[in-house]
Design brief:
The chain is of the alpha+beta class. It has two domains: 216 residues, FAD/NAD(P)-binding domain, CATH 3.50.50.60; 122 residues, 2-Layer Sandwich (D-Amino Acid Oxidase, Chain A, domain 2), CATH 3.30.9. Helices cover 37% and strands 28% of the residues. The protein is built from twelve helices and 20 strands. It has an eight-stranded mixed beta sheet with strand order 6-5-14-15-16-13-17-20. It has a six-stranded mixed beta sheet with strand order 8-2-1-12-19-18. A hairpin with a 4-residue loop joins strand 9 and strand 10. The protein is globular and about 60 Å long.
Length: 413
């Protein structure tokens, strides 16, 4: 099934596997660089036109938002669907003090903004439709086989049809089958935990403050949405999560109320609970002959530091810029130079945060007494050390804290 077409007489210059938010945004960015592409998606056209609410609320950094603005997707989001993330308060165990992060000193009013994943998918699809003649979307097209050769990348669909192009981009999720077929390995960390997400309504205003409560045995986060409503993100061992998914609403909400200890007042559930197993992935390489990986296929983050789709967007911007320059210079789009540069720079932008996120998760899910002591110490040190907090806030706002700017200007002389 097809949504919009490049002329079939002019085959696409790039094939993209996966019409998730990263694959569709990649298509939009390539189209803006004058490059034609064909996006192949296993799911139905209806699921792209009307993406179902999957319970995910995506925290976007300022850089992620700027990329979506450049792609003209941000402008298609209704204002009511964008919630400001003004501050984040991190609690450890039963302690009352918390570590607070805000945008102060960055020149920004907010740390970032929250948008539901299904809205991001919707505007990404609409964005692709707004670039007729440059983007072709084929739904119900399951890519089964890949051949990467010196002259072209060729894919075979499940029904046997073959398509070729100078470049193939895999945006087919963190469990990418294309990555595997290309012989690219992946660092995979299965945390043995799952996350339950759902919306709740509360009687007290959230004031745009996210709460992250690291309790012993589980983590509970509340992400502020508009209209006295928040997204509850509960992380716990997979067996307990499975059992809690079977609880009825009253039992679940009573448990949440006890855990929140009266914060946010009276609580009401809003809609269904969704379950996600927690597995982080990092591809050993982001490129191979005539192939690039984007989105979760390159880096599949643990959601605690809210970087997954942001990293996807950073990769989209980087790769589209390099391929646009290659096209302008009349070079082969599947040539090694641009792909190697993409791989190196995207790794530089993501590796430390990927490892840092996993280290934080390990520390805050380790229930041994020494680890509990250490995490209390880490939070106390961070609270007492404003520069450390400023660095973390700067990561979200995309602005360097004042003291870092001063150090850099001193170094530059
Ligand atoms: C609970 C949760 C909270 C999160 N919170 C945040 C956050 O706050 N901030 C943030 O930045 N990120 C967050 N993320 C991460 C974010 O949701 C992902 O990074 C993003 O959705 C990945 O998009 P993608 O397009 O790479 O992959 P997907 O959305 O997984 O899309 C892959 C697509 O490829 C298709 N496909 C797969 N194989 C084939 C094939 N062989 N042939 C054809 N099509 C195929 C699939 O059908 C699918 O449509 C969160 C994730 C979770 C689970």
């Amino acid at each position: 099934m097809q949504a919009s077409t490049t002329s079939s007489a002019n085959p696409a210059e790039v094939l993209i596997v996966g019409a998730g938010p990263a694959g569709l945004s990649m298509a939009c960015a390539l189209a803006d660089a004058g490059i034609t592409c064909c996006v192949l998606e296993a799911n139905s056209l209806a699921s792209l036109q009307n993406p179902a609410d999957d319970g995910r609320e995506i925290a976007l950094t300022h850089k992620g938002i700027a990329i979506l603005q450049g792609l003209k997707q941000w402008q298609d989001l209704p204002a009511a669907e964008i919630a400001p993330l003004r501050r984040a308060h991190v609690f450890n165990g039963d302690a009352h003090q918390h570590l607070a992060f805000d945008a102060e000193g960055s020149g920004r009013k907010v740390l970032g903004r929250l948008v539901s994943n299904h809205w991001l998918r919707r505007v990404a699809y609409q964005g692709a439709l707004k670039r007729p003649g440059l983007i072709r979307i084929r739904a119900e097209a399951q890519v089964a086989q890949v051949r990467l050769g010196a002259q072209a990348a060729t894919i075979s669909l499940a029904d046997g049809e073959e398509l070729s192009a100078p470049l193939l981009i895999a945006a087919d999720s963190r469990f990418s089958a294309i990555r595997r077929q290309a012989g690219i390995g992946v660092e995979m960390r299965d945390f043995g935990r799952s996350v339950i997400v759902c919306r709740i309504q509360h009687s007290q205003a959230n004031q745009g403050i996210a709460l992250e409560c690291f309790h012993y045995g589980h983590t509970l986060a509340l992400l502020p949405l508009n209209g006295d409503c928040s997204s509850l993100v509960l992380t716990l061992p997979a067996d307990r999560a499975n059992a809690m998914m079977n609880w009825d609403e009253a039992q679940f909400m009573q448990w949440v109320g006890t855990e929140l200890r009266g914060r946010l007042g009276a609580l009401q559930p809003l809609g269904a609970r969704h379950l996600y197993p927690l597995v982080a992935t990092y591809a050993h390489r982001f490129a191979a002959e005539r192939l690039a990986l984007v989105g979760d296929a390159a880096v599949g983050m643990h959601p605690v530091t809210a970087h997954g789709y942001n990293f996807g967007l950073y990769g989209v911007e980087l790769l589209a810029g390099l391929l646009g320059a290659a096209k302008q210079a009349g070079q082969d789009l599947g040539g090694a130079a641009a792909l190697e540069r993409y791989a190196t720079e995207h790794r530089r932008a993501t590796w430390a945060i990927y490892q840092g996120t996993n280290a934080v998760v390990r520390l805050f899910t380790d229930e041994r007494p020494a680890a509990r002591l250490l995490r209390r110490g880490v939070l106390q040190i961070a609270q007492a050390l404003p520069p450390l907090k400023a660095v973390i806030s700067a990561q979200l706002t995309g602005r360097q804290p004042g003291f870092l700017r001063q150090v850099q200007s001193l170094i530059r002389g």
